[in-house]
Please model this.
Amino acid sequence: MTADREIQDEELMGVAQDPEQALRLHRSLRTVADAASLDPTLRDMARAVLSGRVDVKDAFQDPRYTEAVYRRLHEIRRAADDQTYAERRQSQAQFADWDARQQAELDRERAERDAPVGISGRGGRPFGGEARR
Model:
């Protein structure tokens, strides 16, 4: 996404129930914003929320955006209904691989988010050089 400013996870707490859900919502919005294969209306909505131009609650209530979401859900449902058993099994395997990669990325982001403040990441030394004794 090419925006000067991007909201933080905390700014999604108006709809998220906890920091973990806010992190997942933020990642999902980024995915939608960057997905060239999606409806431009959905990408616009995600970019507007990520930039802070539109509040996430307002985006979820905007008829343009909700209609685009319902259209996409209908497309997904139709595609799933048209899959053969072999295609469904292949999709499940691909999803499992994708999900494992996403989980690893979430774990990394959680670790960065929850890291102690003032640690440089180099052997646990505080910023500014030498380890204190």
